Amino acid sequence: MDALTWVYLIYIFIGLYFLFLALLNYFPNRKYIFDVPKITKEYSLSVIIPCYNDEDVIEKTVKAVLASDYKGLKKVIVVDDCSTDNSFAVIKELAKKYPKVIAVQTPKNTGKAAGSKNYGAKFADTELIGYVDSDSFVEETAIRKMIGFFDDPKVGATTGVILVDNRNKFLEKMQAIEYKLIAFRRKLLEFMDAIYVTPGPLAIYRRKAFDAVRGFDERNLTEDIEITWNLITKKYVVRMSLQSYVYTVAPNKLKEWINQRIRWNLGGFQTMLKYKKIFFRKGLLGIFIGPFFLLQGIMGVTGLGIFLYRILRTVMIKYFSVIGAADFGTAVASAGDINLFPNVLIFFGILILALSFFLTFLTVMKIKEKRFKRHGIFNILFQMFVYLLAYSVLYIVSLYKFARGGYKWHG
């Protein structure tokens, strides 16, 4: 076999491995996937909301947290990272109005979410510390349904389902589907103790575990990934409530979306570089989570390469066939050129597509929302075949920036 055939086979093998892994996690656990533990202890909780130039949404975010039906919520600490707009004034007014709200401001702009998050933790003296992004809105029952997991002393953090709040533009609709897919597959990884990120829009940490890892790494662009990997190295596990919804404002402009995804990729590269010594060596993080995280990116880039190669090859063959037929007066195609025998690579390619379709539609059906209508079939297909390819292009751009030391914060 030539080298290209080997690339196809390896790509297909890894793709099928990921898909079958998801299915093998889903079917044995499908009856329990939405279960959440009952609360047997009322843990004291502080929720920290880092804020920078969000005067238009911060009040809505704070009020959503205050509306939580979890009785153990003691404080809502809103941390202004020296905003240049009117954010801090709004926050101080909220503190006057609501006894649980505490308004604080960093001594100087930290420039990263991790800085204001760590600063806010200094004012929390509760058993649990929760974090909600300043442009994210938790549902009333979301926090309560995450608390019961902490009865297990091995649990260092919990997270919920991140959903898109704004869905008017096509780009927003694409992200709405993407976020559901991410959430559902993250829950499936939980059954292997392999959740590798506690996203910023909603996460709760055991204070003891948070202190053990010394909070967030302020040098990392994706502090929510790094702290999760750090927790895992300290033998903690992460749990997820598939009943806990939080709606976040997704980028509605192409440039904002590009900057956000590049930041996610750069932060992921930083995290992999930081923990590279344990890859394929130590614990679940080294044996599975790290390689899994790395292979996802490699698969995206490889898939894009194969796609572009096949397109270019087909175009070139057609072009030279037409030119040759015109020059020599021969037919462009003949009956002998038609191959009716199935190719094994085509068969596996179709199998991957079929399984991807199944998991995508399963996700869309399982994560139901009252606020929004179901996703259209065109949007789902576009997300699978075009949107994800565009993300692969950004992965390559991010690699280039990372290699050049492009560690700048993007929104």
Q: What does it look like?
A:
About 4% of the residues have low confidence. This protein is 52% helix and 13% strand. Helix 2 links the parallel strand 1 and strand 2. It is α/β, with parallel strands linked by helices and 411 residues long. It starts with a helix and ends in an 8-residue tail after the last helix. The chain has twelve helices and eight strands. Helix 6 packs across helix 12 and helix 10 packs across helix 12. It is globular, with a radius of gyration of 24 Å. It has a single domain, classed as Spore Coat Polysaccharide Biosynthesis Protein SpsA, Chain A, CATH 3.90.550. It has an eight-stranded mixed β-sheet with strand order 3-2-1-4-7-6-8-5, sandwiched between helices.
Topology overview:
Layout: H1 3-29, E1 45-51, H2 58-66, E2 73-80, H3 87-97, E3 101-105, H4 113-121, E4 128-131, E5 136-138, H5 144-147, E6 155-164, H6 170-190, E7 203-206, H7 207-212, H8 223-233, E8 237-248, H9 254-274, H10 283-328, H11 344-366, H12 377-403
Parallel strand pairs: 1-2, 1-4, 2-3, 6-8
Antiparallel strand pairs: 4-7, 5-8, 6-7
Helix pairs in contact: 1-10, 1-11, 6-11, 6-12, 9-12, 10-12
In short:
This protein has helices at residues 3-29, 58-66, 87-97, 113-121, 144-147, 170-190, 207-212, 223-233, 254-274, 283-328, 344-366, 377-403, and strands spanning 45-51, 73-80, 101-105, 128-131, 136-138, 155-164, 203-206, 237-248. With 411 residues, it is an alpha/beta fold. The protein has one domain (1-411): Spore Coat Polysaccharide Biosynthesis Protein SpsA, Chain A (Alpha-Beta Complex).
